[in-house]
Every structure is written in C-alpha cells, then in structure tokens.
Amino acid sequence: MVHRGGMVIVSNRAPVTFSRSESGERTYSRGAGGLVTALNAVSRRAEGALWIASAASEEDVRVAREPGVCEIEDLRIVLVEHDPSAYDLMYNHLANPLLWFVQHGLYDLPYAPELGGETLRAWEEGYLPTNRNFARATAEALSGLESPVVLLHDYHLYMVPELLREEVGEEPLISFFVHIPWPEPGLWRVLPSYIREGVLRSLLRSDIVAFHTRRYARNFMASAAELLGAEVDPRGGAVRWGGREVWVRSYPISIDPAEFEEAAESPEVLREEEYVRNLPGALLVRVDRADLSKNVVRGFRAYGRMLELHPEMRGRVTFLAQVQPSRGDIPEYAAYAEAIRRSAGEVNEAFGTPSWRPVELSMQDNFPRSVAAYKNYDALLVNAVRDGMNLVAKEAAVVNRKDGVLILSENAGAHEELKDNALSVNPFDLDDQAAAIHRALTMPAAERARRARALREAVLSNTIEDWVAAQMHDMAARRKAFS
Amino acid sequence: MVHRGGMVIVSNRAPVTFSRSESGERTYSRGAGGLVTALNAVSRRAEGALWIASAASEEDVRVAREPGVCEIEDLRIVLVEHDPSAYDLMYNHLANPLLWFVQHGLYDLPYAPELGGETLRAWEEGYLPTNRNFARATAEALSGLESPVVLLHDYHLYMVPELLREEVGEEPLISFFVHIPWPEPGLWRVLPSYIREGVLRSLLRSDIVAFHTRRYARNFMASAAELLGAEVDPRGGAVRWGGREVWVRSYPISIDPAEFEEAAESPEVLREEEYVRNLPGALLVRVDRADLSKNVVRGFRAYGRMLELHPEMRGRVTFLAQVQPSRGDIPEYAAYAEAIRRSAGEVNEAFGTPSWRPVELSMQDNFPRSVAAYKNYDALLVNAVRDGMNLVAKEAAVVNRKDGVLILSENAGAHEELKDNALSVNPFDLDDQAAAIHRALTMPAAERARRARALREAVLSNTIEDWVAAQMHDMAARRKAFS
User: Is the pLDDT of residue B144 over 90?
Assistant: First the structure.
C-alpha cells in the first residue's frame, strides 16, 4: 500500500549534504548510514514524500534560505536552518552526551552526570528552539495536504510532537520512531523531571510511538505509567494520556540486502578482500563506531582470555577490528578510544609473535574493508553493552561467504530476531564471550552452515521494505480506527 | 497478634558478637544498625523466636560449635560456622561488590564489571555453600516445630529459599525480605543468567517476598515476568511460577523512636552537642556511610554551588558531614573516600576564611556526634544516588529540636513516605540540590515548623513495631489463604 495523502519525514540528519565545487557550482553527496538508508526506503514508498532535516554545511544553509522544496533525484527536501549555538547545545550538550548516555546506560552514576543550570540552558536554548524550528517547518509543509502523515525520527526531535500539535492541532497523524534503546523508568530518573516528563508528554502527543524491539516498547509504557501516571495496556500496546490513546509498537529496523550484495562485488571491496584474506588463520571480525556502548574493550579482553585458555588457537586466528572514530570531542569518547588502543595493544603484547599479530585494529572509517571483512569472517563479534538494533549483524549475515558464526550480545536490539541462530553472550562476562569466540571458531561445518543459512533467512524475511510496509499498515489502521 | 508457631529469623549479621575477656571469660556485645534493630523488634514480638546468623568472631565460632541454642537476654541464637574462604567469596566477591553494585546501579558499565570464571567461582564456592549452611541450620531448627515460619533477610541469603525447600519441602511459610533496592530487569541483565535467574527462581520458592517500597516490589514482579517469563499480577501483588503463587509486598522499614529519644538525652550526646552548637551559622548536616550510593561528593559540590550563587550565605552556615568509613578494602570505595575528602577540601579552599570553615568533614564512626547533629540541624541532606530506605532521615526527624528541614533524594526508599514534607531533589542535579539547600536554610519559621511536625508524625505513625505487625498480619493471612 502506498500512502496517498501527504507524507512528511523529519530527521535531524539529511539524506544529502550540499557543497560547492571549486568552480562555484552546487554539488551534493548522498549520505550513508542505517537511518538514512531506512528513510530513503520510506521516501521511495511514499511517493512525493517531503523530507525535512537540519542544514549542516554552509551550502546547506544557502539551500535552506531559498524558498520552496529542493528536488534531488527521487527526493524532495526541505532543510531547516538553526542558530549554530542552539544547534550545538542541542546536539553536543543535550542529545549526544545526555540522552544517548542515559538511554544506553553509560554513566558512572556515583560520579556522573553532574546536571544543573547548564542542562537547563541546553534544554531551553538548544533543544527546544531547534525542535521548534522543525515543528514550524513541518507545519508549513503540511498546509494544504490532505490526511497528512508526519514521521518523526529519533532522539534529537523528542519535543517536536508537542510543538507541532501547538501549530497544527490534532489533524495530522504523527508517528514517532525512536532508534536507540528506551530504558526502564529507573534510568530516566537520572534526568531532571522537566526533561524526562517533558519528553514523555511530548511523545504522547503522537499517534504511534515506535521502537525496534518489544522490550523498548514495554519500557516506554512502563515509563509512561511510572513517571507520568498514564494508564497503560501493555498487551494491547496502548497508553492513554490526556484524553488520547497512543499506540506503542515495535518494528525491527533492517537493511536493504541488495545494497550490500551489490557493494560486496564492488572493485573497492574486492581489492580489500586481498588484505583481509591474507590475515593469518581464521578471521574474527568486529565493525563498530568507537562508542562507549559498543564494548570494544571487553571484546579484546575476552579474545585475550580465549587465547590464554586455548593456547592451541594462538597463531590460528586474527581479530580484525574495524573501529571508526566517533565523537572524539567528547572527553569520555577520547578516553574510550585510548582504552580501545591500549586493550588491543595488551593482547598483541601478551600473545603476538614475529609472524602473528593477534589483533589488527584499524581506527579509520573504511567501508570497503568492512564489507570485505563481512564477506570473509569465520566469526563476527557484536557484544554491545546496549544497542538500539545493531545493523552490522544483519548486513554481515547477508554477504558473508564463509558460514560465519554470529556472536551476539543479549542487549543488542537485533537479539530479539536473531538469537536462535547466534551465540548469545552477556556483554559484561569476559569468560562467556571467550567461550563463545572459541565455540564459534571450532564449530562443526554443518552447524555453521545451518546457523548461517537461518540467520540470512531471518534478515531476508524482514528487510527494510518490510519495515516500512509494517508501519504503513499500522498507520492506515490507526487512521481508520480513529476517523 | 503474636505468632504462636515456631518462628525462625535468618540473617547474615548476628544480633550479638561474642568475644573473650582477658581473664578468659566469654563476653558479648549487642550489635547496632538498622537491620539488627528491626530484627530485634521481630524477635521480641515473636516470643521464643530463634535467630540464625553467621559466626563472625573467633569466639562466635566456638559458640557455633557448641550444641543447642545460645540464650542471651531475650534472644535465642544459633550461629552458623562457614568455611572462611567460602564466606570471603560470598561476602567480599559476590554480595558486596556484585549484588550491591548492581542493585544500586553503581557500575560504570562501559568498563565494569568484568565478569567471568571468578564470578562463577564466587557463586559456586562461596555464595551457594554459605547459603546451604544457612538452609541446613534452618532445617534443623525447624524440626518438630508446628506451623513454622522462616523469615529470611537480605541479599546475602538469596539462595536459601530454594536450598531450604530441598531440605524441608513446602511446609514452612517462608518470607524473604530484601532490604536494598530491587532494580528493574535491565540492571539485573548485567549479571550472568545463572545468578539473575538463580536468584529469582529461589526467591519464588518463598511465600512472601517483601521490600521497603512499592517501586521495588513492582520491579521485582517485572523482573520475574521478563527474566523468567513468570505470570505476574502487579495490582494484586502476586507472581505465579512453578505451580505456586508468591505474594509480593512492601513494608517500609522504620526505627524505634524511643531508642533515639533516649539516646538523644545521653551524656555522650549532650557532650557532643557542645561541639555541634559551637559551629558557626546555621547547621547543614549529613550522616552516611562512605558508600558510592550515598552521593557525598555531589552533596559537597551542590553546597559549593549554593555558596557561589548566594554569597550572602558565606560564613552563615556550616556543613557538618559525618561520613563513616566503609568497605575500604574494595578499591572503588577507597577511591570514593578520597574523592569525598578532595571535594570537601575544594569547597573549603574556595570559600573558607580564617574564621569559617564551610565544611566540617569527619570520616569517623561517632554515633553520639551523629545524634547531636540530628538534634541540631537546620537542614539535613539525604541525597543518595539510590538507597533501599535510608533510616537517617527517619531517625533525625524524630529527635531534631530545630524544626530542621529534610532534603531528600527522590531515589531514597524513604521518599515514598516522606516526600510530602521533605524537599525532593534529583540526586544527579547539582543546581537542584543547591537550590534546595538554600531554600531549606531560608525557609520561613512557620513552614519549617509545619514540615518538621508532619515528618515526625509520619515516622511515628509507622514505627518498627508497625513494620513487624504488618508482616505478621500478612503471614497469618497467607497461612489462612493457603491452608
């Protein structure tokens, strides 16, 4: 079913970034990354959808200042200009350190965070104004549309539902998708009440609030009940609040398999495969951002533990870790990147020989090499402390050619879909992870093949198109139920 | 109602500690502390109750090895001897770092804990054997008793219900009281499944599982549902699991007001009052163990923030912090004690004058001075990150003579009962705490008096006797319902 009314997608990140060539012409590049890929699929599905996002580059700002809609290939885009200091407060003081840390449970609570007036300022002078900009741009885009649908995405935009309702009332159907974990009320209590209650009240002005997993949906309903006193029907997936009923749903996000199958045959990837295949022994792989939630340090330590317990594996495996730098200007991230380097070095120091380096750590963004690694791993380690979904697990399962085994944290969103054919691990337990790595590397071929096939089928049975279709279906049902 | 059958109380800590005088005679001292006081009240109520606890001192071990029950004043005691290394594993490797940290949410999860084989060893060679010792001693004590009731206490004994049922079957009524916070399932997931599921399965062999607050009871039911798949009736306070129905209840623990009113008039306290009353200006007080959950560092920093924002308060208030050393052999605690000293020093450095020291930090156990401080505070700061109950808030409210204002963390168990007349604070928000300190110290006399009176009444309306009575009542009801 294609949505026939007007559809507006809103996300902080835009699907394209504009720049100016040396000759002064406007050029653009299309963004990559899981969320943008997913929203591209939504945009394709909903013909003529408008996509509203933040202006990021200087040229983006020029585009934002031009009237009307910018049409690029199959996309119709409106860029929103924010005051740079407001954007900085929203992005670098509120969304990325605070909300990201709370929702992933990353704070060392006896010491951090130290909230206060600065938090309030980031909220009032950063988060609220940027969200208001989005709400206004959306309201403008909606004018004249019939049965409009607004799809709001992720933790940068929590206040948009409320601010948008103030502008346009109850007519548009609002769906809000949260792409990161929604923790239980106890973690939300870390935040000041104006944030934790403000966010909840705003989200409950939506018609549908959506998550990647049933667990997050359940936690959201528990939060609404406990922090706001809302009436909740956990089985039915509904929250009643302020005289309205909000549907709470889970749609596990996925990938476009064709995109990865195509990338897997690209010349860049084939070139990188030469490097990857020349690494000695079996291939253990991880591909992650250098984020505190990804558990890179414990991954190396667990691998070291495995080499300690199973000396016969020494020289017979290489751990290729593709870890992209991330948010290096936040002190906690700089310290974590350092801890990653140190812990990789410790394993190499303890077990390396002149002819064998146990860990090959690359802290650069190298997509072709990551895909080359996806194709060739014998075991893939995804041991996140917490992770909204983790698309690496899905991408890799589709293109792997070696019947590679997936080792998967029970706290990754992907665990709900993939657990039956992955080796589940507790991300805090080094010996559990060490045992899983060993088991993966010594698993009989028949079991490897069976698991790999089942994983691939699990991913192919719920692609990004299915993810979009399921949401469209529920939005139509919602419209029908409440019209 | 006095329980007429045989009642057995089991706790790790004993109500008395035995020692040997220089002349070789056996002597003993009665323990203090909230839990022991509470269980003394249970013991008084249930005439002839037997109290089983761990032998701690050398002389305790001798007592444990003598046959029969040891009668001391109004107490009937059986001490259990543990293998010292098993006890050390239970106490110093499993209960106090791991369970305490998880249940209070104190881990810096990107880095700690690093669980593994050592955890399994502490569980199998420490926690299980000591719990088995308790179960056996309890089974022995039960033999021949009619309608026996077993009251198990706290996080050192989680496996006793299961091990005891193995020995004696379904006949005894088992009540298990957890005195520390019960967090949501997400935090329990930090622990290996053999612990988190093992603990839950065992607790669900009890008839009643009890907590200090409704929030903990709710979290327990959510844990049973999510981690075990048990059927839960949150409104009715019941979990159905393994063909049995378990009642889940909350009974906010309290104090014996007479004990504190008496202590308040003791010569030692009167002497300490001279010191306390000579401190310059209004008196802000905190009394805590140096535990990572108590939030001592943020307390000093919030006080410093208040002095920064309200220069007129400088020289007109002293912050007396009685912080008892605790668990100094655990590295995290040693580091925290150092952070406490440093942060107090920073405030004194920034604002102190030759005639005024803003913070008086005493890191010694000085009960008379603490009671003297209780009597004389103008404001009491209880800003715990998380706290099972926090009896300081209740003790102090009863003996304070100054219409002192209670500043209370919304994450302390006491908050459910006392919030209406305390100033609630978010323990992570320095400015919120700074504002509450300022408001407390500048509050009009009439409001202070009204709040102080209401707090005192709230405590007096639910004393330790009421706490015991409520449990006895429910145990009788349970017996009736299932007989």
Answer: no
